[in-house]
Design brief:
Chain B: Its main location: membrane. The complex is a heterodimer of chains A (546) and B (310). Chain A has a domain at 56-218: Alpha-Beta Complex (Dipeptide-binding Protein, domain 1), CATH 3.90.76.10. Chain A is built from 18 helices and 19 strands. Chain A has helices at 8-14, 63-72, 119-130, 148-151, 187-190, 202-205, 207-212, 258-266, 284-288, 310-313, 320-328, 332-337, 371-380, 400-414, 426-434, 454-461, 475-485, 490-503, and strands at residues 43-47, 77-79, 85-87, 90-95, 100-105, 168-172, 175-179, 220-226, 230-235, 249-253, 272-273, 292-305, 344-346, 388-394, 417-423, 441-447, 510-522, 526-527, 543-544. In chain A, the strands form five sheets. In chain A, strands 11, 12, 13, 14, 15, 16 and 17 form a seven-stranded mixed beta sheet that branches. In chain A, a hairpin with a 4-residue loop joins strand 4 and strand 5. In chain A, helix 11 runs antiparallel to helix 13, helix 16 (454-461) packs across helix 17 and helix 17 runs antiparallel to helix 18 (490-503). Chain B is mainly alpha-helical and 310 residues long. Chain B folds into two domains: 2-76, no CATH class; 98-303, MetI-like (MetI-like fold, Orthogonal Bundle). Chain B is built from twelve helices and no strands. In chain B, helix 1 packs antiparallel against helix 12 (275-303), helix 4 packs antiparallel against helix 5 (129-143) and helix 7 (174-203) crosses helix 9 (219-248). The chains are: A alpha+beta (546), B mainly alpha (310). The interface between A and B is large, with 66 and 49 residues.
């Protein structure tokens, strides 16, 4: 999948734990110890950085903007914690061949300005978002739909041949069909993502103004945006969806640092904090008691291999055994516990937790720390060229500490010289990847776009996929991915991808490191605070106490 | 005097163009692409990247970009738009500068009042107990890093005593600004106190002081007019350049106290390669520096009539 909400890494990575001390355990059961009666009109506050861009459904990729958009818009479907789908604005979503999908909308839904939500609201919005003329960052999400290449030609500077995708047909006010260019069994899951939200008719009159004050169809109405200070949304009383807000609204407050936000949480000026800063991680469980949140979310950190680099290519392609050996030389358990302060969980495969098709131990022994076996594997594979590797990372978001720890672990276990290759910031890191200047390995990561295992495999390891920046390419694997994509049902596809994941160990497209966790907290004023798979709190369920 | 001012103002033109061009080139030469940075790990198709780049004019030659930028500023007072969110830079600066101005003014008043008074006390009692206490106090302030000082103040006054909120809220109340202003002005306060002290201690032995005393003038007048007027020249010089430093250099303090001012904006603009925002910021800061230094130079003549301008 092209452009996705990956800037979350920028935001999320800034708060990656650095402190080198271990921390005490603590349980979080999301229980309520708030006092006083629930106030259904109570407004609570949450820390949120300034959204990077105007609030367009087709251009909101990072977590700050996403949090606001998710409250203002409701898409056709959403997914539950186990990865299965739940209807939201859609009455039903049906397909017989995974190629043509029929959407029936729930009747009576309106936008916040009172206009009805119809099939046209969806079809027009998708066509607008996909159009290259509007340069929306998430436009490639529509690439599955027939006729996408007409509205979004791949070539630089090309003009769109049409402003409508052939695959979208309006049947009546509450029914429309989507025809894809080829079957995509998990297409329904993609529809939960924000670029697929409907847009009100007023949007097209002045998109620029709408980007500053979106009119949605979701549980919350957009109220105001005081740039770099706060954004306010209030409950939409005419909302007909199942996820009706149990509170009066949300005040998204901007903070200069996570530490400042945490101080405000402690002194009662803030109700929910999404991420605890490195400084406070060792103490936050003691500070907050059972209001401390510690749960996994669907994201994974890996070390990706720059397959184009000379050291892996010349004189002959590297044997995957060498990479298996390097993987087994990393002591994940100790590093996550000490260097990362318990904010990560050792990975045992390439698909993150909470995703449909997640399987434990998919990578087998490869993620276990075993210096003896690691040495043997590297020897069997012909050794590391020059016995020297580099791990590239961006030094602006706290990756240095764990990269060094990983390097130390490799060096001690198998005697391969390992050096961190720090780039000053994320932009410089990306440029080096884009220009194929990565010396041997680089830090990489992935947050779910949709909770199906295909997202962690096809979008990362398929030849030419945008997430595949290390130029990994394998014909056998491509064929298997194509086969898994062309089956008729979601179940079959998930199973096929599970088999592929088990098989990845023979190719080693990347070295899985650990799964991310949400380390957050909330104040005594609120209860019912739960965090979703994407690491964001679920706003509508929060109850505010008097 | 008039000619001097005119010449100084004319000198500002090359300085203005020189600094802005330098900043422009520096931002441009940093590795990393601001547009690709929008997409992160997951990348984007070249068509979309090219389209965004074209819309922002980033596909032009750097000198052409600079030319367009400068002519827009001069002809239309248009500082361009931010790459990420398309907000006009004038609006972004308009949000950040008043806050920082308020903070800087407060810090400046703090360092002026307390710095100069401490300096006077120390200067008049040079070598005595009060002087030594002030020397030790200023040494302490100079040697404590800003973030430590900020942390200690928060720790004591916000969490232990509960006299203040730990952070500045979005309303930026005057009362909330006092603590950050103390932290921000603290370092300069120490320098002001020391400069005042030394300068006064020196001038106390000057001939005109002896004459003033011999004339039998009241002590108030000797110190207030004869001594102070001459001793203030180095202090005023320092204070003048410090206004600019206070406005631009508050990155740490603003971060600690959650103030959305110029400091954070500079940091953000560099890390996001927001060239237009950065150049706009620097342009305003350069103007602030130029005007304060002009003002200082003119003040010299008022303080010491021996200094004349042609």
């Amino acid at each position: 999948m092209r452009g996705a909400k990956s800037a979350k890494w920028v935001a999320g990575a800034i708060v990656v734990a650095l402190a080198a001390t271990a921390c005490g355990g603590g349980k979080s059961d999301g229980g309520s110890d708030a006092k006083g009666k629930v106030d259904p009109n109570g407004i609570f506050s949450m820390d949120l950085g300034e959204p990077e861009k105007p609030l367009f459904t087709g251009d909101t990729m990072e977590s700050n903007g996403s949090a606001v958009m998710k409250s203002v818009y409701s898409t056709l479907v959403k997914y539950k914690a186990d990865g299965s789908l739940e209807m939201l604005n859609a009455e039903s979503l049906t397909t017989t061949d995974s190629k043509t999908w029929t959407v029936k909308l729930k009747p009576g839904w309106t936008f916040h300005d009172g206009t009805p939500v119809t099939s046209k609201s969806y079809v027009d919005a998708w066509n607008w978002n996909a159009n290259i003329a509007n340069a929306m960052g998430l436009s490639s999400w529509f690439a599955d739909i027939k006729g996408f290449d007409k509205v979004h030609p791949e070539k630089e500077g090309a003009k769109p041949a049409s402003d409508k995708m052939d695959g979208l047909k309006i049947v009546d006010d509450t029914t429309f069909t989507i025809e894809l260019s080829k079957p995509v069994p998990y297409f329904g899951h993609k529809l939960a993502y924000i670029p697929f939200a409907p847009l009100a008719a007023s949007f097209y009159k002045d998109p620029k103004a709408a980007g500053q004050a979106p009119v949605g169809n979701g549980p919350y109405k957009f109220k105001s945006w005081d740039h770099k200070k706060q954004i306010e949304v209030t409950r939409f009383d005419g909302y007909k969806g199942p996820n009706k807000a149990k509170n009066g609204g949300v005040l998204f407050k901007n903070y200069t640092t996570v530490e400042a936000a945490y101080e405000d949480l402690k002194s009662g000026n803030l109700d929910i904090i999404r991420q605890i800063g490195p400084k406070d991680l060792p103490v936050y469980r003691d500070d907050l008691g059972d209001r401390a949140v510690d749960q996994s979310y669907s994201a994974i950190q890996t070390i990706a291999v720059a397959y184009y680099a000379d050291m892996w290519k010349k004189p002959k392609p590297i044997d995957p055994k060498v990479l298996q050996g390097l993987s087994m030389a990393i002591d994940r358990a100790t590093i996550t516990k000490t260097v990362l302060n318990g904010t990560r969980e050792p990975a045992t495969g390439w698909v993150a937790k909470g995703v449909l098709g997640y399987q434990e131990n998919a990578a087998g022994d490869v993620t276990k720390f075993d210096p003896a076996k690691a040495k043997q594997l590297i020897k069997d594979g012909g050794g590391v060229p020059n016995n020297k590797i580099f791990i590239q990372y961006n030094a602006d978001s706290g990756h240095k500490e764990w990269v060094e720890a990983v390097c130390n672990s490799i060096q001690q276990a198998v005697g391969v010289q390992c050096t961190g290759d720090g780039k000053p910031d994320f932009q410089a890191d990306l440029t080096a990847r884009k220009n194929k200047q990565v010396k041997s390995l680089y830090r990489s990561g992935w947050v779910l776009d949709y909770p199906v295992n295909a997202n962690f495999i096809s979008d990362l390891f398929r030849t030419g996929a945008d997430g595949n920046q290390g130029d990994f390419s394998n014909k056998e694997l491509d064929a298997k991915i194509a086969a898994a994509d062309s089956v008729k049902t979601l179940d079959e596809s998930v199973k096929a991808y599970q088999a592929i994941e088990k098989d990845l160990v023979n190719y080693m497209p990347s070295i899985p490191l650990w799964y991310y966790k949400t380390n957050a907290g909330y104040s005594e004023k609120v209860s019912g605070v739960k965090f979703g798979q994407d690491g964001d709190p679920i706003l509508y369920g929060v109850e505010v106490h008097k | 005097m008039g000619r001097y001012v005119a010449r100084r103002l004319l000198q500002m033109i090359p300085v203005f163009f020189g600094t802005t061009l330098l900043i422009f080139l520096m931002v441009y030469s940093l590795p990393g692409d601001p547009v690709a940075g929008l997409f992160g790990d997951k990348g984007a198709d070249p068509a979309t990247l090219a389209k965004i780049r074209h819309e922002l004019g980033l596909d032009q030659h750097i000198l052409k970009q600079y030319w367009d930028y400068m002519s827009n500023i001069i002809l239309h007072f248009d500082f361009g738009k931010q790459i990420r969110n398309g907000r006009p830079v004038t609006e972004v600066l308009g949000d950040a500068f008043p806050v920082t101005l308020q903070l800087a003014a407060l810090a400046f008043a703090f360092e002026l009042v307390f710095g100069v008074s401490l300096g006077i006390i120390a200067g008049l009692k040079a070598g005595r107990l009060a002087d030594n206490i002030i020397l030790i106090f200023t040494l302490l302030i100079i040697s404590v890093p800003v973030f430590v000082l900020g942390f200690i103040i928060k720790m004591v006054f916000a969490f232990q005593l509960g006299w203040m909120e730990p952070n500045v809220s979005n309303d930026q109340l005057f009362s909330e600004m006092i603590a950050p202003a103390v932290v921000l002005g603290g370092l300069s306060l120490a320098y002001v106190a020391r400069l005042t002290r030394t300068s006064m201690a020196e001038n106390l032995r000057a001939d005109y002081m002896r004459t003033a005393v011999a004339k039998g003038l009241p002590k108030r007048r000797i110190v207030g007019v004869h001594l102070m007027r001459n001793s203030m020249i180095p202090v005023i010089t320092f204070l003048g350049t410090d206004i600019g430093a206070l406005m631009g250099g508050a990155v740490v303090t603003e971060g600690i106290f959650n103030i959305k001012g110029v400091g954070g904006l500079i940091y953000e603009s560099i890390s996001r390669r927001e060239g237009s925002t950065l150049v706009g910021l620097v342009t305003v800061l350069v103007i602030v520096y130029l005007f304060t230094s002009l003002l200082i130079d003119l003040l010299y003549a008022v303080l010491d009539p021996r200094i004349r301008y042609a």
